[in-house]
Structures are given as C-alpha cells and as structure tokens.
Design goal:
It is a single chain. By secondary structure, this protein is α/β, with parallel strands linked by helices. The strands form two sheets. It has a six-stranded parallel β-sheet. A two-stranded antiparallel sheet has the order 1-2. The longest helix has 14 residues. Bound molecules: uridine-5'-diphosphate. The site of uridine-5'-diphosphate (UDP) has 13 residues, from helix 9.
Length: 242
Amino acid sequence: MDKVNVLGVNFDNKTYKQFQNEFVNRINNHLSTFVVTANPEIVMAANENPEFMKILKEDADYITADGIGIIKAARMLKTPLPERVTGYDLFTWLMEFANEERKRVFLIGAKPEVIHAVQEKISKEYSNIQLVGAEDGYFTEDLDLVARRIQRTQPDLVFAALGFPKQEKLLSILRKNAIPAFMMGVGGSFDVFSGHVKRAPEIFQRAHLEWFYRLVTNPSRFKRMMVLPQFIVKVKQSKKGK
Ligand code: UDP
C-alpha cells in the first residue's frame, strides 16, 4: 500500500530513508516538490477547513507522519506506517545537504530576531549555502505577492516556518506555479534551529514523550493539545464506519 489514509489525509507509506532518497533525486532533477509533515493537529484542522484539505489532497506531493499520534492512528486502522518522519529532522538534514551541494535556499518565517539568528548560524556553520532570501513571517502583504518574490530568487529549496495552514497556503501557490524547487512547511523549526526554543531532551524523544516535554515547558500549548484526544476519538469512529 502506497498511501495510508488517516481521516482523509493520505500519508506516504515510506521510511525516513526512502523519503531522503526520493527527495535528493527530485532536488537534483529540479522537480517541483511540495512536502507536508502532518501531525494530528494538521489532520484535524484539514477536517474542519475544506480549503486546507484541498491543498493536502491536490497540491502536496508527499505527506509524512510528523508525530506519534499519526503512527498510533495508522496502527489502530490496521494500516501501519513504518515510522515518524518529523519536519525538524528533515529540515536539519536538508540544510546539511544544501550546504554540501551549494544549493540556493530561501527561508521565510518566525520572528525577526529568530530569522536573524538563523541567518547568522548559516553564515557560520553552513557557509556553502547560497541564502537567496531570509525573511521573518510577520509580513502584511498577501501570499501571492510573497510567492512572486520567492519565485524571482530562483531557489532550489524553500522552507516556510509560518505555522499551518499559512505555510502550506504559501507553498501551494509556488507548487501550482510549478517552480523547480523543493518546498516544505516546517512550523516552529526556525525557533529550535536558532536555539530560541529547546527541543525535548533525547530521553523524552525516545520515549515518544516530546509532546509532554513541550506541554510542561510551555503550558500555553495546553489548549492546542486538547485536539489529541479528539483526534483519537475521531479515528476510532472512522474505523467503525469502515
Ligand atoms: N509564525 C510566523 N508568522 C505568523 C505566525 C507564526 O512566522 O503569522 C511563526 C512563529 O513565530 C513560529 C512558527 O510560525 O516560529 C509556528 O510555530 P508553532 O510552534 O506554532 O508550529 P508547529 O511546529 O507547532 O506547527
């Protein structure tokens, strides 16, 4: 089975390694590629927002399971996915790749001080990357205009860290224009990459308790996390309806 359907979202049934190989191939062949790393919040949001669901169904080339919630849901539906493939892991690996291959990278998202810190880190640690754009995510222009600006810089890779669904909306415009770039929404990745937000210690990650670490260190996320139990209930209902 190529795809695993979780509440209407089609996840690619691939390992981290398989995604890496396919992405390198597509980047080297300059194929327009739009990747969504979807967690339960994104799946729930798409179920409430038809425009967002349409982007995931029609514009995304790949959808990865970003979060243990998706892995559990796929298992409950008896169509297991091999492993979690997070946006942050893909992002940091792709930055290494872009550095080795001297690729053109456009970054958009996060607060001004965060994107500045990201720029600094790139100039020190990823100095072979050609950074063709680095903008914060608090612009007021409409997305079409921003998309045109990105397109003009002829990037090989575009990372948007605007939170969903804004980042996916922006990238879907570029994908519809078929720009020859690899594009991925990366949520809060610039905050972590710049060191402004700490990722959960390894021990939490290994125990699949990253969500718990985030909750304890940032209790304002509590409301957002309440979608998790609702997600599981909805998956159970969808299983019965099968
Ligand atoms: N953000 C942005 N522009 C906005 C709203 C949010 O650039 O209009 C940024 C925000 O600063 C943060 C990221 O988008 O860096 C979203 O982070 P969040 O932790 O919500 O993302 P998640 O990874 O949980 O989807």
